[in-house]
Design goal:
With about 170 residues, the chain is α/β, with parallel strands linked by helices. It has a single domain, classed as Molybdenum Cofactor Biosythetic Enzyme, Chain A. The chain has a six-stranded mixed sheet with strand order 2-1-3-6-5-4, with helices on both faces. Helix 2 runs parallel beside helix 6. The longest helix has 15 residues. The two termini are about 15 Å apart.
Amino acid sequence: MGAHDHRDAAAGVGAVRVAIIIVSDSRTPATDESGALARRLLEEAGHQVVSHGLLPNDEAAVRLEVSRLLEGDLDLILTSGGTGVSRRDRTVEAVSPLLEKRLDGFGEFFRRASEAEIGTAAMMSRALAGAARGKLVVCLPGSRGAVRTGLERVLLPELRHLIWELRR
């Protein structure tokens, strides 16, 4: 089977069940614009957001929540925030040990798409994706622009294909 055959088969994947985690020390449910955008884009694409929450920039808390979600009935865990280079940015460190397979191309594509919008500052993003326990885990930066770019230009075009592959 070639890539086109896989995409055709993946078209049969229904709504992807998603958990969204926003990692931030400053946002509240009322000010969480990135999470609201992620939810809207995913739902407009026909997917089902089954969980949406906020966590502080705390490595242990993020790892615990992602581990808990990996036990649940969902297909995608999407985090937003904590992927930069500041000392408080620990999402990648929290999630990486849980991944069984990394999808390095995700971060590469995300940074390439981001470069057109923010220039060489895109190099500071540690956007990450991988598979764990048959689920897709994606870590995006916390800004609205990064969420839009990551979803519209990188993840959503291949999401059903990725989930189809993980279910095989």
